[in-house]
Design a protein that fits this description.
The complex is a heterodimer of chains A (about 120) and B (about 110). Chain A is mostly beta strands and about 120 residues long. Chain A is built from no helices and 11 strands. Chain A has strands at about 5, 10-15, 20-25, 30-40, 45-50, 55-60, 65-75, 75-80, 90-95, 110, 115. In chain A, about 35% of the residues are buried. In chain B, the strands form 2 sheets. In chain B, strands 2, 4, 5, 9, 10 and 11 form a 6-stranded mixed beta sheet that branches. A 5-stranded antiparallel beta sheet of chain B has the order 1-3-8-7-6, with no helix packed on it. The relative contact order of chain B is 0.32. Chain B is globular, with a radius of gyration of 13 Å. The chains are: A mainly beta (about 120), B mainly beta (about 110). The interface between A and B is medium-sized, with 28 and 25 residues.
Chain lengths: ~120, ~110
């Protein structure tokens, strides 16, 4: 139980284009999903928190117009990187919480999406 | 600012050589301390949650313990497949996000 998937697992795009990353909770309903970013040899840094049916809450320094988050259902959240630039190249990881049987704050992570912007 | 600090940054062990990883935190009213394992190019894999000082949890060769100021991840007789980065985290904001330490990269040589 508590499986989270991400798609795609890796993507290469040209500078100026947009990329959409999907995060799905496969066997539970996720009331809250989180998007993190991880640069090489760094730890995970929270970008935003999304609750189903409401606007995402972005961390300080994260541009909400650049990183569009949609949490349309209890099993799907999407992150769209708009007008991507090389400095957006990173490892993007989503997590989800809210499944039955889980502790109140336990999060389960997707496998991550490697984004490379050329 | 509340911190989660892990040490050492890297740890090299021989197969069978037991050791411990440390995670210290500076926050009052801890609402949980989490341990994850992360393999290269993968998302973190949940290991343990500890909620109160004195609590211990075990899974195969791993045992996590918690005091009022720090947590330890004990690895008994590690195997090469235990090689990974181990992350600890504590709850951050009110919506349940996690604040991660920088991790300890464990390498176990056969």
């Amino acid at each position: 139980g508590a499986v989270v998937s991400q798609h795609p697992s890796w993507v290469i795009c040209k500078s100026g284009t947009s990329v959409k990353i999907e995060c799905r909770s496969l066997d539970f309903q996720a009331t809250t999903m989180f998007w993190y970013r991880q640069f090489p040899k760094q730890s995970l840094m929270l970008m935003a928190t999304s609750n189903e049916g409401s606007k995402a809450t972005y961390e300080q320094g994260v541009e909400k117009d650049k990183f569009l988050i949609n949490h349309a259902s209890l099993t799907l959240s999407t992150l769209t990187v708009t007008s991507a630039h090389p400095e957006d190249s990173s490892f993007y990881i989503c997590s989800a919480s809210g499944g039955t049987g889980q502790g109140p704050l336990e999060q389960y992570f997707g496998p991550g999406t490697r984004l490379t912007v050329t | 600012e509340d911190q989660v600090t892990q040490s050492p940054e890297a740890l090299r062990l021989q197969e069978g050589e037991s050791s411990s990883l440390n995670c210290s935190y500076t926050v009052s009213g801890l609402r949980g301390l989490f341990w994850y394992r992360q393999d290269p190019g993968k998302g973190p894999e949940f290991l343990f949650t500890l909620y109160s000082a004195g609590e211990e949890k075990e899974k195969e060769r791993l045992k996590a313990t918690l005091t009022k100021k720090e947590s330890f991840l004990h690895i008994t007789a590690p195997k090469p497949e235990d090689s990974a980065t181990y992350l600890c985290a504590r709850p951050g904001g009110s919506q349940g996000n996690l604040i991660f330490g920088k991790g300890t990269k464990l390498s176990v040589k056969p």
